[in-house]
Amino acid sequence: MKKTGQLVFTRNQESIASTVRRIPCTSCGRNHRGQCLVGAGVCYQCGQPGHFKKDCPQLNMTVQRDQGVGSQTIEQSRVSVVPTEGTSGARQKGVVGRPRQQGKVYAMTQQEVEDAPDVITGTILICNVPADVLFDPGATHSFVSSIFLTKLNRMLEPLSEGLAIYTPVGDVLLVNEVLRNCEVLVEGISLLVDLLPLELQRLDVILGMDFLFAHYASMDCHRKEVVFRKPGFAEVVFRGMRKAVSRSLISVLKAEKLLRKGCTAFLAHIVVVQREKLKPEDVPVVKEFLDVFPDDLSGLPPDREIEFTIELLPGTAPISQAPYRMAPSELKELKMQLQELVDKGYIRPSVSPWGAPVLFVKKKDGTLRLCIDYRQLNKVTIRNKYPLPRIDDLFDQLRGATLFSKIDLRSGYHQLKVRESDIAKTAFRTRYGHYEFRVMPFGLTNAPAVFMDLMNRIFHRYLDQFVIVFIDDILVYSVDRESHEEHLRIVLQTLREKQLYAKFSKCEFWLEQVVFLGHVVSAKGVSVDPQKVEAVVNWERPISATEVRSFLGLAGYYRRFIEDFSRLALPLTALTRKNVKFEWSDKCEQSFQELKKRLVTAPILALPVTGKDYVIYCDASRLGLGCVLMQDGNVIAYASRQLKEHECNYPTHDLELAAVVLALKIWRHYLFGEKCHIFTDHKSLKYIFDQKELNLRQRRWLELIKDYDCTIEYHPGKANVVADALSRKSRLPKSALCGIRVALLNELRGSKAVVTTEDSGSLLAQFQVRSSLVTEIVRRQSEDSNLQKKFEKSKKGLEVEFELRTDGAIVKQGRLCVPNISELKNAILEEAHSSAYAMHPGSTKMYRTLKKTYWWSGMKQEIAEYVDRCLICQQVKPVRQRPGGFLNPLPVPEWKWEHITMDFLFGLPRTSSGHDGIWVIVDRLTKTTRFIPIKMTSTLDQLARLYVDKIVSQYGVPVSIVSDRDPRFTSKFWPSLQKAMGTGLKFSTSFHPQTDGQSERTIQTLEDMLRACVLQLKGSWDTHLPLMEFAYNNNYQSSIGMAPYEALYGRPCRTPVCWNEVGERKLVGPELVQITTNNIKLIRENLRKAQDRQKSYADKRRRNLEFQVGDQVFLKLSPWRGVIRFGRKGKLSPRYIGPYQITERVGPAAYRLELPIELARIHDVFHVSMLRKYIPDPSHVLQDQPVELKEDLSYVEEPVQILDRKEQVLRNKTIPLIKVLWRHHGAEEATWEPEYQMKKSYPILFS
């Protein structure tokens, strides 16, 4: 008996039914569809037998809906699961069927849903696709629209029993399929539901009672909320969509007409009210010490009990560097700031032999700060080992405190003088003279330690009583208001007496809770700063196997601290396996939450120990920044954050440096004064301290880094799992944006602005309106001093090539001059090379295109270097040069059958004996060859017997065997057998068959002999194989100067052709030995000559190519195998994959690579011709792409789903075809394949 379901949409059913005109029924005279119920013996209300409509129990059922004022009672049709007589069909045609159950469907449009005050709707991710959803407790099942079904790209499954659904006008819809286990993402929690396909008007999904009941849901129609209270899980609340008042824009004329009609008008405008900043006069106690908070420092600080000193390493000579070049705008600012420093007395003219260059750092507000590049001086300075207080000791002092104040000094370093004898060492060189500092400058390595020494001496009496000092930060703490007032007054009075001044805008007073040294301090005690564990605690639930792997990478790094880690992570690990459908279950959620809890509790998260080195792991991605602070293998804190709007445009080098700066800023209280090792997977950061050419952003960050005793070291990305996982956390679920942006783009184009959109996969997007590239080039031409000089010369008639265009642009022979600004040149190069209108041309074509429009000095060279560095070009373009690696022949053997080669020839026609292959074995000295017929299915044990019978028994045990990497040779059995016999195995380099060239050439000759044999002698080829072996061994070999038989036995073989020549001559005793020995010497000499001849000829067509250990190289996909994709030649597949690091040089022309785990089955040694050197660039973002290759370097393509079926008729033969969706490819790349072929190759697809 088939089941019957019901869909009730709660309202307007009668109005919908009445709007449709019908032909009156001949039985009852009414308008309806389907079979008339008159005379059917069933209730007209519910369709059940055994009672009439007036006695129907459903008439007594009511649904109370809270309207905020009263309640409304409406009739609804409920279906009970009992058998009944009736008729049904996909569309009722009056055909009587077997007993069914009946239900009624009431349709509701989206507009009616929005207008209804008691209906709950909203947008929810269904299988990661946004859907308009209606929650309906009146529907017994959940439904999906046929239109939305196409977006899910999932296959329907057949129902075991059909489901009949009745419409309000009498239609009967028969549903035979269901979409099972669809993921409904509600507030980050995954809930599963089965969806039935149905035609819905403008709604995507309806979630009925089956879903609400299974997930313990309760609905509040007034608040438009659905609450899920599943046992064992936190309560989840979904808030439905409320009807929004649409905004409209009316004109003045339209408003005037409305006013004349008597409409009431309101004029509203929004005013942004800035909160008035707090002033020192408004703060108790502080208002008594206004002189401690000046707007600026006026002059030199007084003499203090301590001065800043610079102690140098013994034998250090003065260091002087040339000034850095500056733009005209920077020179103007330099002149101003130098005069200001001279007026304050901070600097003075110098004649010192020392001299550091100066540079500008851009502040957050856009102004420039003058900085001195003291990197060379810091290298020769003896470090000040002033001790920092233990953090746990400081917290002991804070217990019981309830009020706190934080004071930050204004330009603290400038409030301390430099010792007179050391002033000369602070000298710096500029365009406008040579100067030296009289006060402590920024950028010197010992400045923070000396300043903390000063602060501790000043507040020595009050330390551990009510004052804590950490460098230039002062924390005042007290147990009550009265004492805090007294303590604050003492501290401010001390600052006044010592003439130390604070910056009010950075101070905080009378706080009940304060964040200090990475902890939150309040009256309740000391607790961990939530920011330390926020990166892990707020980790959103993964929605794909890739995100699960990222989380497990973080958790697995600390598995030694997590008891029973394997059992806890088992549900998550199962989701990352191949061919496993991603379904987030309750067990997965429990595993995820428990692992997060373990990661932020002891013993992983520990307190730091003063005096021990710290370790920081940093990483950056296009999603965010991540870092982790460790000590002795224990985590001190985690940190991560999303990229800010402007940071999305940073090059990779700057993003990785930003992650380092993030760590140093947030963990300053831990790292200051301590040795710190920073690990990053961006290798070029190792040399940041020695780079001369830095942009303003890098300069600013370098000033901060110089305050710390830190080293930056390289750590491979695959080993940096923790920071990498934190930086690549999923921030927002992926979703498409509305089509409204298209209209906005059209409007913006009208303003002649350049509008760019970035599809980042986020729920929100922004439009960035920028000036065009040409306008930007013209505007910034003034910043290039060399270009300005050339133009000035042209005005004087010295250089006639340069002229001024009417729009103010400097041009050279009609070509726009590009200033020497890297970001502008990179923008031009990127547009001309990587854009959709360029498609990666070569350097010559690109130069000829650009030279028509632009000019800058060294343009051709820069274009060539840019194309060489292009990551895409390195992966897809072939090397247009001679093959790499000179010929390296194998050494000539000393004696017969000591060194042999072997290979298999398969794919031959199967003979009556069952043979379909030949085992080819060749002696490398005499070239004697054995052809042994075998079967493709021969076991290793059978091959071993053949080897002993045919080779070992006749020629003895060889010293070495050269072969390719056939699985028969690389299996455990074959190497074990040869090791027991004392034979060494030499395998060819991966995907370089030339290593075993002897066997390969012999097989080519054998194939020609087989073809001739089949044509001339007929019959099975294996019956003629002994004759082929005889003929081959008696043919002259130019490399040895004789036939292989003669080389082996010392005399020519007796054949019908040369019977008379050989005769019956007998050789015995010493004569035979002497002839054989002489032949061997002659053969070896001939082989050497042949090898030299072959090497000389081959090397003319090759080039020497060498790499170093540590180099990054691309791996060439083997062209002689062919890259297969979708069962066809993959002409659009990349030619190279990687890059991978070289770990070892193996021989003169082979290298061992560090391959990823997914390529573990592939041998890691490759010939140099298979490699291509990777040319790095800071803009490259090298992400591990999922690469799945077979052992022959061909792509693994696995079918995922059958999307469609059809039949094709060819020559009166019907061929069933199926449309297949392949793994790692979208639906647009699905292919039609013969069904019988797919069943044979992929039977699991049809199970």
Task: Describe the overall structure.
With 1247 residues, the protein is an alpha+beta fold. The chain folds into seven domains: 102-239, Cathepsin D, subunit A, domain 1 (Beta Barrel), CATH 2.40.70.10; 288-523, HIV Type 1 Reverse Transcriptase, Chain A, domain 1; 524-604, Alpha-Beta Plaits, CATH 3.30.70; 606-727, 2-Layer Sandwich (Nucleotidyltransferase, domain 5); 883-1060 and 1070-1094, 2-Layer Sandwich (Nucleotidyltransferase, domain 5); 1111-1118 and 1130-1173; 1199-1245, OB fold (Dihydrolipoamide Acetyltransferase, E2P) (Beta Barrel). The protein has 34 helices and 51 strands. Strand 8 and strand 9 form a beta hairpin. Helix 12 runs antiparallel to helix 13 (565-575) and helix 23 packs across helix 24 (859-869). It is globular and about 120 Å long.
Keywords:
disordered N terminus; 1247 residues; five-stranded mixed β-sheet; Cathepsin D, subunit A, domain 1; globular; 34 helices; 51 strands; six-stranded mixed beta barrel; magnesium; alpha+beta; endonuclease; HIV Type 1 Reverse Transcriptase, Chain A, domain 1; Alpha-Beta Plaits; 7 domains
CATH hierarchy: architecture of the largest domain: Roll
- The figure for the number of domains is 7
Low-pLDDT sequence parts: 1-22, 60-110, 730-771, 1059-1063, 1119-1132
Q: Rough shape?
A: globular
CATH topology of the largest domain: HIV Type 1 Reverse Transcriptase, Chain A, domain 1
Largest sheet, if any? 6 strands, mixed, barrel
CATH class of the largest domain: Alpha Beta
Helix content: 25-40%
Distance between the termini: 27 Å
Strand order of the largest sheet: 4-5-10-6-9-8
Average predicted local confidence, pLDDT? 72
Radius of gyration: 42 Å
Strand content: 15-25%
The tally of strands reads: 51
Total count of helical runs of at least 4 residues:
34
Helix/strand-derived class?
alpha+beta
Could you state the CATH homologous superfamily of the largest domain? Answer: HIV Type 1 Reverse Transcriptase, subunit A, domain 1
Domain CCHC-type: 43-58
Enzyme class: transferase
InterPro entries: Chromo-like_dom_sf, DNA/RNA_pol_sf, Integrase_cat-core, Integrase_H2C2, Peptidase_aspartic_dom_sf, Retrovirus_Pol_polyprotein, Rev_trsase/Diguanyl_cyclase, RNaseH-like_sf
EC number: 2.7.7.49
